[in-house]
Amino acid sequence: MAAQTETNAPTPAQEYSRFNSIQRAQHLLLILSFTLLTLTGLPQKFAGEAWAETLIVWMGGIENVRVLHRFSAIILVIVSIAEFIMVGQKIYVERARWTIFPRLQDAFDAFNQFFFNLGLRRAEPKYDRYSWGEKFEYWALVWGTLIMALTGFILWNPILATKFLPGEWIPVAKAAHGGEALLAILAILVWHFYNVHLKTFNKSMFTGKMSRHEMQTEHALELELIEQGKASHQAPLEIQRRRRRRFLPFAFAVGAALMFGLYLFVTAETTALSVVPPVSDKQQVFVPRTFTPTATRVPPTPTPAPPTATLEPGKPTLTPAPQGTPTASGSMNASALPADHAMQGAPCVRCVTLAASAARPKIRRTTRAAWIQRARIVINNHDAVVKNSR
User: Fold this and answer.
1) Structure pTM?
2) What are the residue ranges spanned by the domains of the chain?
3) Is 1.20.950.20 the CATH classification of the domain at 13-273?
């Protein structure tokens, strides 16, 4: 009975190592940064839409959205720098197989997979450690990160960018940045989610391991190489230690240079970080450059009264204007009427008319005889000139 119990006891499922802890942590940071970039980037691209304005308000305003977007971009760049150093470690130090790089067999596998999906082939192609679809996703991520980093730098530092590039590059960078972002989001939602979470729920990025059944289904060629002992082509430990001593200083120098470049990337132009300056409680609206004199009130100059003729019953008189009263042709004074002027008990119309004409300025008029005389003088002068010229 004991022997039968041991025979019928289920054996633990065999598992194969897929990703180490550093790769899983790197993937987790990539998920967080990409999600934040999506949540903060789409509302900025479609600003003006109701849903975009609502998301911006929920995240605390456009300034907070932009700060979160740039913080997520910094995390993505740091993850990319770490991936670059890790690939160098595997290629130079460990001498691992170049399984992530494209090769001609990937093109044949893609066509065979297409024909298998149409029912034109009986068997599905066998894949090594990475299939052609996984390689396509990886290098699309690399290419997209480069495009987003370059265009994002131009949009982040437009003043500095236009010192070296034409101004037309600003709208070009904006269009490329938004288009590449939409392409990346759709690729993750449609391609990656379907193949990893819907078609088969692949937990290897979270657990780091894959079962034998999953290896037979998705990486049958790698499983055959593992069973034959040909999957790992790492160099001996002594050679790895010697290469690591040479690689670590180089990796440290390259990493420090890239991080310093990232620091310059972030701090190149501080004016682009804020759109509206913070409003303070007290602001001086007008600051005079020079002393402004105080207006002095000058009393108005009194205007002298014009000469008027006052007619009293029984004795008409003229009130003369003061000396030096300005008129149209200069200063003049009106003279009074004779004292012994005869009156008939009523105002004399002629005397009033004479008084008014005496008060008006005298304008010299040129008579017809004077014009004729001037014309004769001009004609005589002309005849004299003609006679002398002969």
Assistant:
1) 0.63
2) 13-273
3) yes
